[in-house]
Write a structure and sequence with these properties.
- The chain starts with 15 loop residues before the first helix and ends with a helix.
- It has a single domain, classed as Alkaline Phosphatase, subunit A (3-Layer(aba) Sandwich), CATH 3.40.720.10.
- The protein is globular and about 55 Å long.
- The chain is α/β, with parallel strands linked by helices and 405 residues long.
- The strands form four sheets. It has a five-stranded antiparallel beta sheet. A four-stranded mixed beta sheet has the order 6-8-1-9, covered by helices on one side.
């Protein structure tokens, strides 16, 4: 979910539930994912580490037993910990990737049975509770059917089964969108419909919790695991490390009777939720993490200046038919600057300025030096041991259809 299609970021009408949470809580004006797709993004959220340090960078990676997870720590402090992924697929937040570690129960699927089981699991024994709920309507290709839609969008969103297109459909559609404002508007409308579906599902969830009296002391956090390109980048979706893919919404709504600032302008990342949630729960934060506690920002301090690091892998062709190798890519972000660089010598270092409405390539030596110096103070982009898992043919096909392989 990208923030600029939501009410708190100036796009009213799509997200009344999220808007209401923002009205009583805090909107982080500049929040960023540490990754470009679901698996490494959730690994960062649950460990407080960048993807490379969590050891989760590729679709076949599995979070190893090394870094403690958010539900593991909270469980040690007496919390019931429950996860619910409303869509079960190979490219979702799901069991089997190591992300389930520390959750007492992990439900998958969006039918009423899973929904009831999730509510009952949270309320079962009266202990304090923590949960992650994952929604996926606003995920590429936003399969919300619209009547009378442009046939190019229908063919892209619902491709014929068993047919391999000669070109990447996401790249083809991106080129068409940039050349045709009418098609761009239609794609935006499809995406907005998907956001409305997510927002409505969040509303149903909160209504059910409120009816059970379970929001009286709750902190509610709405956050995107990654952003989305709607044609600004070479491909539709979120396969590439770009500003539109790393920008995410982040809204934190406090319990009744607690006052937080309406807006925070300091940069925040997914990995920051690990120490922030532990701090709110009164739990000790494990050492050596990459995220920072956002408590000073929630207390109204404006001096939380830092950089957020987002990471991805890029396939690099090799001569002579050798297997492809991977190059590490990073973005070092401090609003309004977004710096991309990589471990591969063919990857240029590019500095963008983001406060003009459209990311603009620029050359500001002082900003470049500030970002690089700030990155040098953080942990290097090494990886902890990971546990690669076998990928079935069906999973591989689903991952390929989602544009990740």
């Amino acid at each position: 979910m990208r923030p600029d299609h939501l009410g708190p970021w100036g796009h009213p009408g799509n997200s009344p539930v999220i808007d209401a949470l923002a009205a009583t809580g805090t909107t982080f004006d500049h929040a960023w994912s540490n990754a470009t797709f679901t698996l490494p993004a959730h690994a960062s959220l649950l460990t407080g580490l960048t993807p490379s340090r969590a050891g989760v960078m590729e679709s076949s990676d599995k979070l190893g037993a090394g870094p403690p997870t958010l539900p593991e720590v909270l469980h040690a402090y007496g919390y019931t910990t429950v996860a619910w992924s409303t869509v079960a697929s190979a490219t979702s937040f799901r069991k089997g990737d190591g992300l389930e570690r520390g959750f007492d129960q992990f439900f998958e699927g969006g039918n009423p049975r899973e929904q009831r089981a999730w509510y009952d699991a949270l309320a079962g024994d009266g202990r304090p509770w923590f949960s992650v709920v994952h929604f996926k309507n606003a995920h590429h290709p936003y399969r919300v059917r619209r009547t009378g839609e442009d046939p190019r969008l229908v063919a892209w969103a619902f491709p014929p089964v068993g047919v391999t297109p000669p070109r990447d459909p996401d790249e083809v559609l991106a080129a068409q969108v940039r050349a045709d404002p009418t098609l761009a508007a239609a794609l935006g409308e499809r995406y907005d419909d998907a956001i409305r579906a997510d927002d409505a599902e969040i509303g149903t969830l909160l209504q059910q919790l409120d009816a059970r009296g379970m929001l009286d002391h709750a902190v509610v956090i709405v956050v995107g695991d990654h952003g989305e390109s709607l044609g600004e980048d070479p491909a539709i979706g979120h396969q590439q490390l770009t500003p539109t893919v790393t920008a995410i919404p982040l809204v934190m709504s406090p319990p009744p009777g607690t006052s937080w600032p309406a807006h925070v302008t300091a940069d925040a990342g997914l990995a920051d939720l690990f120490p922030t949630i532990l701090g709110l729960a009164g739990a000790k934060v494990p050492p050596g993490i990459d995220g920072v506690d956002l408590a000073p920002a929630l207390a109204g301090r404006a001096d939380l200046e830092r950089v957020v690091v987002a990471q991805a892998l890029r396939r690099v062709g090799t001569p002579g038919g050798q297997p492809q190798r991977y190059a590490g890519l990073e973005a070092v972000i401090r609003w309004p600057w977004w710096l991309s660089h990589g471990t591969d010598s063919r990857t240029p270092t590019t500095l963008y300025r983001l406060d003009s409405g459209t990311p603009t390539v620029t050359n500001e030596p002082s900003a470049l030096r500030t970002l690089l110096d700030a990155r040098a103070t953080l942990a290097p982009a090494g990886a902890v041991p990971t546990e690669a898992r076998p990928v079935t043919d069906a999973e591989r096909k689903a991952i390929q259809q989602a544009g990740y392989w």
